[in-house]
Design goal:
about 230 residues; 4 helices; alpha/beta; 3-stranded mixed sheet; globular
Length: about 230
Amino acid sequence: MTMQAEATPPTEAPLPVEWRISETPVPYETAIAEMEARVAAIRAGTAPELVWLLEHPPLYTAGTSADPTDLTDPDRFPVFKTGRGGQYTYHGPGQRVAYVMLDLKRRTGGKPDVRHYVWQLEEWIIRTLAAMNVTGERRDGRVGIWVCRTDRNQPLREDKIAAIGVRIRQWVTFHGISLNVEPDLDHFAGIVPCGISEHGVTSLVDLGLPVTLADADAHLRQTFDGVFDGVLAE
């Protein structure tokens, strides 16, 4: 992950988190520009923290650790270099992207902990999945959230259901998570997702759940405060 952690003076407690849901896919460059502006406003104290739920048109993003050889079909979809940490990721319709813009310094009384913030993002996804009767798990050395599954006549395997990519500027977070609700899983074939070739990707619908983006949104909102308010033991 790429993180900028410049010292800043203590500020007042944050305003309540604002939630925004975009009903139509948002172009990637538009989303980045809006995140940049909002992060600056949060730092200036002129706007509240924001969780922005959206979809993108089909595209690939290259994080700061992306290996060019992992882009196996460069002409399939537009490719965007991005300041978030991580490697290649796919975004597209049917995938819920949550861009999370929080002021870690305000939230921790001046003692932000980036590792704990990443743990919170993971925990948020895990609790959201649990609300839909799906067991999501962390894996050492593998970014994101994974599910174990068995298909008929197939051995046990692990597939990735959610990705995490973080950037932090002066202790304000942006980028965030992506949860596969019902994307076209074939679209992941143009990259080695997050540099991991020995495991696949899945989605809630691929697991047999009749879940919509609206369902996922409701669970993301319901589980958010329990993870990001107060202190949680890892």
